[in-house]
Design goal:
mainly alpha, flat
């Protein structure tokens, strides 16, 4: 027969084991999420997004000849709407489509399949569905809802070049 002490001890060990398992899965989940955020940042940088939206998605474009992109730090779009805009673009606004199959193989903006509409700004390169999803995750986790651009944001964006681009004492 088990004593009260043994039952309590067994329960404590079980609780510790459960807590340890939850903590380990949370840490693994965080590492996986951070990898998706980094993948989104890479897709953001390599797809030409900063040319119009700026490095920090604040509408401070990097190329004068590019259309002025929206300030995504203040957007109210949900993830599905963000993905749709990235995938399909917005005709006559300067927002390119980044999905090769948008319009022709998959409808956009509530419309069925059809020809690509005129007035879409050319995309520097197309993105895969995974890249589009990763960009949405990056925007949601590191950009949307953050008004000021902090030195930490600058360092995250520029990584090893941060010393050349970021002033540690200045917020934008």
């Amino acid at each position: 027969m088990e004593s009260t002490f043994e039952r309590r001890s067994s329960r404590r060990w079980t609780a510790l084991l459960v807590a340890g398992t939850v903590l380990a899965s949370t840490v693994a989940g965080f590492a996986q999420d951070e990898a998706r955020v980094k993948a989104g940042l890479t897709a953001w940088k390599t797809s030409g997004c900063p040319a119009c939206h700026g490095a920090f998605a604040d509408g401070d474009k990097e190329q004068d000849e590019a259309p002025t992109g929206a300030n995504l730090r203040t957007t109210r779009l949900d993830n599905a709407a963000l993905a749709e805009v990235i995938r399909c673009g917005r005709p006559n606004t300067g927002m390119p489509r980044f999905d090769e199959s948008a319009y022709t193989q998959r409808g956009c903006n509530g419309q069925g399949r059809g020809p690509v509409p005129p007035g879409l700004y050319p995309a520097p390169r197309m993105m895969s569905a995974d890249e589009i999803d990763a960009v949405v995750i990056y925007l949601r986790m590191r950009v949307i809802g953050r008004r000021a651009i902090t030195p930490k944001d600058c360092t995250y964006y520029y990584e090893e070049l941060a010393d050349s681009w970021c002033d540690p004492d200045q917020e934008k």
